[in-house]
Structures are given as structure tokens and as C-alpha cells.
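Hi R.,

Quick one: here's the Lipase sequence you asked about.
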Amino acid sequence: MTTPLIAPATGIGEVVRLGAVDVLLEGHLDIDDTDGIRPLRLPRRAGAHFPPNGEILRAITSNASGVRVRLTTAATRLSLTLRCTQLFFDELPGPVNDIVVEVDGAPVHVVRAPVTDIRRLSWTGDAASSSIMSPPATLEFTLDGAGEKDVTVWLPQGMTVDLQDLSADAPVAAAEPSRAPVWIHHGSSISHCVETPSPTGAWPVIAARRSDLSLVNLGFGGQCMLDPFVADAIAASPADVISLKVGVNIVGARSMDQRTFTPAVHGFLDRVRVGHPDTPIVLASSILWPGSEDVPGPADVEFLEGGRVRCHTTGAAGDVAKGALTMTESRRQLAEVARVRAASGEPISYLDGLSLFGPDDQARYTLPDSLHPDAELYAEIAARFAAAVFGEDGLVPRRELG
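And here's the predicted structure, written out as C-alpha cells:
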């Protein structure tokens, strides 16, 4: 089978109204307009299929990872009014990330997102409550230079954002949709990337920009479970290349075993193929989870001295012989799924997650909680993924657009 090439896309994005101006919103699949414009990374209709204890899933998929606002203007001052919700898991606070403003592709402002609201979730996901901490926040940005500018505002990847108003000292227009090929990526917290302060530090964002791709990042922290409604959302969305990075959440939650994992992967892919029969798919396994590679779930968090934590699997080693799934076994099965489907002529490739971070990398890079990368490692993962998948000799080479 010949190596697939990414074809030009029709563009993605949605023009939304903020106050008296139109802007282009990209990187989302739906919006909630109850209190402004809230980007959602799953269609609202998918919520009807969430589990009864789905409050964490609901919150995570409303986080703004990879979502950006794009506009053109000759303004020198820009005001953005918004609400930003920080998540709490019982008493454990979730991240507060940055907002990044770029002019013609270069960052000109990096500010910590204001916390105007708190959403408190139970660890089991069956209860949630919201608290308003302050009125909507208005952020003021200066935009140096005369003439028309392309402005991009990257939203905080680990927070829920309600955009309410935008004004400037000159007319504002929605940017033209990107003509770059569309890349949909689905993965776990290691694709959601809330650990890095900046939304532009998420590795799928870095990889997309290196490869000139228009990204929809469906990295859902703790929620990459091969859910059928996620497959249906991907199937219904424009895409020129799709990647699925699967394994760690399923092992960590012990939500599948050796018997059920492979059929579930095939079922997910079959649903995606309903909307994308010929789109190249890269099926990727997880990066190294030190100390938990051959130990089944469930996962737990150990609190250490100095405020440090360690994420690790806690299952009994003897359960593997009884069918429990491990990280090592998940990689073996994913490779076989890709092999079988590619042999039938399907445009699908396998990427071993250990090539992004593996045993030989432990001396150079660290996982602060033994599971999630830091900003430096996310950048390295992005570089490796971009080269291995979209590079000249990659699994799905990026064609130069004429």
C-alpha cells in the first residue's frame, strides 16, 4: 500500500459574535451559548450518552485545549471580557493556565487566566457544584504596529471559558478560516497537556504548528475510553488526518481487559470510518509509565513529602494471568489492530508511544508525577511526533500546499 498523503482541507472554524464584533473560533466541535460563547470539544448531543457519573467527563470536554479565537484588525488596543472556570477535584485544585495573544504568529502577551468561577467535582464524577468568585474579567491587550494584523488568542487548556465581549479601537473582522489540512487528535491527559502553563505548549499544538496543520485537540484528561460518542463526533467532523493515542486511561481505570480491548478499538475505528472511509489514521500507544508498565490498574495517587505526588497502578501482578490489561499488553494489541486493518488495505499506521518517550529517555527527561510530562518533555514529544508522522519520511507525510 502506498504511503497516504494529507490532502488540502476545506477549513474549519465557526464565526461567533462577541459583543458587537465577529470573530473566528477554531479547535472546538460545538458551543454552549448560555452565558456568552463556551467552546465545547464534543457536540452537546453527546452528553445524552454520558454515564450517570459523567460530571468529570462533562467538565474535561468543555476545557479549551487547542481552542483559539482568530480575528483581523488594525487596532492597537483590544479588550476581551470572559469568564474562566477552574476545576477542583474534591479539595484538589485543577490547573490555572495562561492566555496567549499572538500577532501575525508571534506571541505578544502571555497572561495568567483569571479565575472567575470554580467547578467542584467529586472524584467519582457523580456530583458537581459551581461557585461564582467574581464578575466577568476584562483583559486589556496592546497591539503594536500600524496596519491590519492577524490576531490569535489561545484559551487556557485546562479551564472552561465563556467568551462574553470583545472590543477594540478599530474595526474587527473574523479571520479567514485556515486552509491548512485538518488534524483531529484524540488522547488522554498526556494529549490534553494541562501541566504546561501555556496553551501553546500542549504537544499537539506544537506538532500542528510545526507541520502547518489546523488542529482539533480531543485530548481528554482521564477520559480516553474509546467511547462510541467520541468516535461518532470524529466521524461527523471534517478531517484530513486522524490520530488516536490510546491505552493509559483504560489501563489506569481498569475499564477493559485483554479480552475486550482489541474489539473495542476495532469498534471505535469502525465508527470513525463511517465518516472517514479513506482518511489516514495513526493509531498510537501510550508513552512509558515508569514502574507501572506491567502492573494492571486501577491507578492511584500517592502523596509524597514536599507536595509531590506519584501516579501509579496498584493491581495485583497475578491478575495479568487472569486477563488484566497492562500498558505493555495494550501496545502489543494496538500494533496488531493496525497491522490487521492495514493488511486489508485501510490507510492506517501504528506509532509506538515508546518512541515518543521510552526507557532510554528517563535519564534526560522527567515525569514530575511519574505519569505526566513537563513542558520540556511535551515539546520533545511534539518534535518526535511531528517527524515520525508528518515528516518527509513519516507515516503520513505532510504535502506542501501550493
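The first strand starts at residue 14 and ends at 18.

Cheers,
M.
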